[in-house]
Amino acid sequence: MISSSPAARWRALALLAAIFGAGVSIYLLVEYTTGQAGVCLTGSGCDEVRASDFAYPAGIPMPLFGVLFYAVAAWLAFRSLGGGPLLGLSPRSLLVAAGVAGAAMSAVLTGLEAFVIGAFCTWCLASAVASLVLLLAAVGLAVTPDAPQPGGDSSRVRHQRERAAESERGRLQRVAALGATVTALLFGALLVAGAVATGPAPGTAGNLAPLTSPRLGTGQVTVVEFADFQCPACAVVGPTLAQMAANDEMTLVFRYFPLEAIHANANASARAAEAAKPQGGFWSMADLLYARQAAWETLSAAAADSYFAGLAGEIGLDVAQWSNDYASDAVRAAVAGDAAAARDLNLPGTPTIYIGGELYDGERSTAAFRAAIAQAAARATPTGG
């Protein structure tokens, strides 16, 4: 299907990389805009990256930029086959420039995941690989001439050149069709697999905000957050919500959802916060758990117990009382009860947020939260007749 010409092979590779990258971006865009959970091979990393402040620059889902970038790259790969200059540059040079820009942006985003978010999205990494392959193929194409064409300017020679160009375009179109088909089947299957694995969408049955749960603020709208103190995304979202509640912009209700399968100290940290509640120290303990997450997340169980006791003393609690509560059946039952409620609601991960009783799956920024809270308040306010 692909010509033996080295330039043709580089061009086809660039096109396939762009098609795969576009497929990854469309897959992520579906997840971002519908809340549909897909398949994540890096634990909860996909959810944590999607919940970060970097997922929606200027309120736009990041994958949309990827779709546009790879669409342009695919067009340039086609245009490099006999196309004229664009903006004074050859399509091959522009394809190299696009490859450099894509690889650079992927490096920045991967660095943010590694050093700021503290979690990796499987498909963001796949997109980074696609951008690197695209750059390699673009450079290879730029330094490799197309196959020699017959010389001369007779009608027969011109016809031969036209036939060769048409044949090359046909091969490239077949490569594109095959690549697009395989990519669509792959990511369609992954979306179906994700939907089957997660089951029904999160529900709202039951009492979302029991009176026994920690609450902060006296705002009109109640915001319920199911969170895990060892979740990096929760460490970003939790303090934002708490600050808004402290300003009485809403009433915040905290529910425990420790993801023990992937976070070794999730349950212990939840118990540390719950044990601080009888002494009025829940929110102070929550603040410290999030702020110092990196200091305790990899500790052994015994070391974590000691570390949390130190935090209790730091916020002025009676450590002896806190220690008794920390080990008590009542505290364990409170954490387990919230976790069971989260499972009954079929929550996909953390943080999961309900605003005014409705599941919220939008951008995790102060402005976005305020807009959603305002909408919930408007729904709750009777309109005059």
Task: Summarize the model shown.
By secondary structure, this protein is mainly alpha-helical.
List key phrases describing it:
5-stranded mixed β-sheet, de novo design (two linked rop proteins), Glutaredoxin, mainly alpha, 5 strands, 2 domains, about 375 residues
Beta-strand percentage?
5-15%
Return the domain count.
2
Determine Rg (CA atoms, Å): 27 Å
> Which strand order does the major sheet show?
1-3-2-4-5
Shape: elongated
CATH C-level class of the largest domain: Mainly Alpha
> Which H/E pattern describes the elements?
HHHHHHEEHEHHHHHHEEH
Structural class: mainly alpha
N-to-C span: 70 Å
Describe this structure in words.
The chain is mostly helical. The chain has 2 domains: 6-198, de novo design (two linked rop proteins); 215-380, Glutaredoxin, CATH 3.40.30. The chain contains 14 helices and 5 strands. A 5-stranded mixed β-sheet has the order 1-3-2-4-5, sandwiched between helices. Helix 1 runs antiparallel to helix 5 (122-142). The protein starts with 5 loop residues before the first helix and ends in a 5-residue tail after the last helix.
Topology:
Blueprint: H1 6-34, H2 45-50, H3 62-79, H4 91-117, H5 122-142, H6 155-198, E1 215-216, E2 222-227, H7 232-246, E3 251-256, H8 266-276, H9 282-291, H10 293-296, H11 301-314, H12 319-326, H13 329-344, E4 352-355, E5 358-360, H14 366-380
Parallel strand pairs: 2-3
Antiparallel strand pairs: 1-3, 2-4, 4-5
Helix pairs in contact: 1-3, 1-5, 1-6, 3-4, 4-5, 7-9, 8-9, 8-11, 8-12, 8-13
